[in-house]
């Protein structure tokens, strides 16, 4: 049987810079994978490539054996491939309630309805507030996003992804910008995800990575240099080198 | 928890509708006041109604979807010509049928404009919209056999409305007919903009990438809105043809498009109320100033626009609404 999600020999260069070099990986039902790597390793680019926000130079993306490489972002979401954004992308003038309701309506095929209001749909309202509650956002349900703190906007970003009920979820640094005291909300939300959902999370907080992931993939300079158990990653010579190199550069800058 | 949420949901929803009921009441009162205060100026008020429909239609694509266009009169003019040609050449003079034909004409023009304009983004979008209005204008000019070319299309003599209310010299029937159309369209549009579809459009204006990451089609949604916008502008154009009994090339002009945008910005985008207020303010000032001093009319419009954009960037309605909101919050 073909894996739930498969990436095959993905390549991408910006000008002369090879940002994604021959990346292949696959995820199965229920996988909890962390994708780590120094800044600029190409993690976000990888997510952009597989979700259709960027076009790869070559390589394929498959969902359940079906080649979705030619799908636009919208069709990939409908195929069950959902992402969150490293830098929050929300509707500044809309409320968390409207955001989540819109995602639910979209999933249910009701977002094209030209009359009525989601607030008059009890099932949509119930699910909206269940989702907001998971991320402790209920009290902010009616506040425009432009007036809520960035950390909470990050949580809403995750709520949106959850509301789409994906098969494969790609989270790009969900905890970046969330106050440390609130990261438990993200962990709680992750813990409540359906067991058969495959999750790939990009994350820098190693504590979070070790608690969450059963498998770690390390990307450095566009290349996968490690794919295995979390415990083995820290002892891997190439991983150490990549990180030490990264830190050395970082402190020199 | 969820039970609590749905309980707290009801008042907010009712408050929205309350505001709309107040809005509709205000329009009605203003309409009646206009009828009695300016009995000799009903033609001007009637023209205002036609333009309001155009500006409302523009608000749908510009205010709600964020599409920049200087070619929106293409939708209005198409509706006007569709209704006018139906009456003058095919003897379809029943006014409500004429309005319906105008709506279809406007919707078709909306579909064509949408498909062309939405291929571009930002500046390219603006240029495409200008190209569209010039093409429509030229097409109407060339098809003079049907449109009367630069002489305009005349010979439109609509039947009495519902077979009872004849179009009179004072323009009373036209005015009341227009108010009824406007109210009907306005109510339908308020329902539309608060629907899931309306919310999706607002989302597209704020971040199309986020909308596609939700699995919605940005393009298809915008095209649908363009067609609806065409229906509304088409009704406006057809109503103009019915009430003035002529259709001129100016209804399909760049100037007409640009003025509609000015009115929308003046009133405030993205609320529908702003579209109405902006039209009244603009047409009224135009009438006042051009009578007093025809040479400086454009100067005054220019100065007014600069003042609004600099000091009240949300437009007359948007600024008033913000002030009111601040006052209410402060008052609590
Ligand atoms: N649109 C782009 N055009 C050119 N270079 C880009 C673009 N996006 C990313 N890059 C470059 O690709 C590299 C990888 O970036 P990114 O995928 O954001 O890294 P990460 O998410 O791992 O920190 C960086 O060197 C970045 O400057
Ligand atoms: Mg990144």
From TrEMBL, chain A:
Keywords: ATP-binding, Nucleotide-binding, Transport
One Pfam family matching this protein: ABC_tran
Molecular function per GO: ATP binding; ATP hydrolysis activity
PROSITE patterns on file: ABC_TRANSPORTER_1 (PS00211), ABC_TRANSPORTER_2 (PS50893)
Chaperone is among the record's keywords: no
InterPro entries: AAA+_ATPase (IPR003593), ABC_AA/LPS_Transport (IPR051120), ABC_transporter-like_ATP-bd (IPR003439), ABC_transporter-like_CS (IPR017871), P-loop_NTPase (IPR027417)
GO annotation, cellular component aspect: plasma membrane
Coiled coil: none
Lineage top rank: taxon: Bacteria
Gene3D superfamilies reported for this sequence: P-loop containing nucleotide triphosphate hydrolases (3.40.50.300)
Residue span, ABC transporter domain: 5-246
Keyword Transport among record annotations: yes
PANTHER family (UniProt xref): ABC TRANSPORTER ATP-BINDING PROTEIN (PTHR45772:SF2), CONSERVED COMPONENT OF ABC TRANSPORTER FOR NATURAL AMINO ACIDS-RELATED (PTHR45772)
Family: Belongs to the ABC transporter superfamily.
This protein's name: Amino acid/amide ABC transporter ATP-binding protein 1 (HAAT family)
The organism of origin for this protein: Phyllobacterium bourgognense
From TrEMBL, chain B:
Main localization category: membrane
CDD domains xrefs: TM_PBP1_LivM_like
Annotated TM spans: 21-38, 44-61, 73-92, 98-118, 174-193, 226-249, 261-285, 297-324
UniProtKB keywords: Cell membrane, Membrane, Transmembrane, Transmembrane helix
GO MF annotations in UniProt: branched-chain amino acid transmembrane transporter activity
Pfam families reported in the protein's UniProt record: BPD_transp_2 (PF02653)
Protein known as: Amino acid/amide ABC transporter membrane protein 2 (HAAT family)
Source species of the chain: Phyllobacterium bourgognense
